[in-house]
Amino acid sequence: MTRAYFLYYDHYSATKRRSASCTAGLRFDENNAAAPIDVGKEPCPACHFIDNDVAGNISRRRMHVFNAFLLGYFHQVDSDRKSDSGVAYKDWVECAGKRCKHCGANVERIFGRRVFWPLSPRFVKSINAYSKSEFSTRCRCGGNLEKIGLDCPECREILYDFVEDRIDDKEIAQLSATQTRCPGCKEVVVPKLTLECDECKKPTPLTLWDVEMKVVKVGTGTDTAINIVKWEPISDKVRELVSKQKPFDFGRLFKKMAPNEMAKLFGIPNPYEDEDTKSDRKHVDWDEDEDDDGIKRKAVKKRRHDDDDDDDDDDDE
Ligand SMILES: [Zn+2]
Ligand SMILES: [Zn+2]
Ligand SMILES: [Zn+2]
Ligand SMILES: [Zn+2]
To answer: CA distances (Å), 117 to each of 8, 220, 258, 259, 313, in order?
Structure first.
């Protein structure tokens, strides 16, 4: 695992009112994820019927799942749910502050916990748009960035000077996407945006991966949106905490269901019956130690991390 997020398909049966992730497993390549699933190679009963336009009311949507770090105080307490061998799972509960019963019972209070955060395409799009318009106006050093012009990427000739001619962001976006002939080197080039930081000599715009965000979900049912109500560059304290966390092994976490199991869940035939093997799906403790492979993580501060489905839960199971 070398990525901060992965993609998977989420299936939902409106008849059975159940959802399941695609039995074809995670999509490791963003480009391939857009392509139809190769059902011959990675069988998924739901995809089979969707690709053949006979799925009825079983749907498929592409989800992003992010490694995230939830800021705030938490306790780890025994869950009501038990494993097959009778061992209670652990649940994370948010500390309730002054009148917290877990604090009262001297249960250890932990700052920050890693979570995984599944987001539907619509939410990913809105976070990206926000990131582009807001985060990118600040420098990694903490300073403010200003777009000062467009230069030739070949010879660095100044093509447009925004300090001289004030133009708005929309025009800048348009100009920076339009090929032009450089008067300096005479090449046809796509202009390169030049930024200036009021604090440092190395202007580097913040990205989604460099910030702490407070995210709230608004609306109900299918009419929901996520709003970033507050954000700031990652503090040294959080960066340090995050660096000690291990990213989720999404391959294990989203261990795929056997096609037979899904067929049963959705009440559909399994076209892959013959090649289907017995499910090897096991309980995976999401906080079990995993191989440390230094994935880039995102620090997020948010109230709710669920998506428009209520079954997107990040608790320990
Ligand atoms: Zn599928
Ligand atoms: Zn507490
Ligand atoms: Zn040039
Ligand atoms: Zn700077």
So the answer is: 12, 19, 23, 25, 9
Residues whose Cβ atom is located within 5 A of ion ligand 4? 139, 141, 143, 197, 199-200
With tokens 């109500």, the residue in question is 229
Ligand nearest to the CA of 183: 3
- Look at residues 190, 166, 172 and name the one whose alpha carbon lies nearest to residue 180: 190
Q: Would you say the pTM of this structure is higher than 0.85?
A: no
Looking at the 3D structure of the chain, how many domains does it have? 2
Compute the distance from residue 295 Cα to the ligand 2 centre, in Å. 30
Q: Can you tell me whether residue 311 is helix, strand or coil?
A: coil
User: Which ligand is nearest to the Cα of residue 42, counting in written order?
Assistant: 1
Q: Which ligand is nearest to the CA of 145?
A: 4
**pLDDT class for 166, splitting at 50, 70, 90?**
confident
Residues of the domain holding 179: 145-197
Q: Are residues 238 and 115 in the same domain?
A: yes
Please give the structure tokens belonging to residue 279.
């499910």
Q: What is the pLDDT of residue 298?
A: 42
Check whether residue 104 and residue 19 sit in a common domain: yes
Q: Are 150 and 175 in contact (CB under 8 A)?
A: yes
Considering the domain architecture, whether residues 101 and 62 belong to the same structural domain is answered as: yes
Query: For position 2, what pLDDT does the model report?
Result: 44
Closest ligand by atom to 98 CA: 2
Span from the CA of 5 to the centroid of ligand 1 (angstroms): 19
- Higher pLDDT, residue 3 or 145: 145
The structure tokens listed for 20 are 């399941």
CA nearest to 69, candidates 205, 204, 237: 237
Q: Could you tell me where the DSSP H helices lie in the chain?
A: 30-33, 45-51, 101-104, 121-133, 169-176, 236-243, 250-253, 259-266
Q: What is the DSSP letter of 4?
A: S
**What is the 194 CA–ligand 3 centroid distance (Å)?**
14
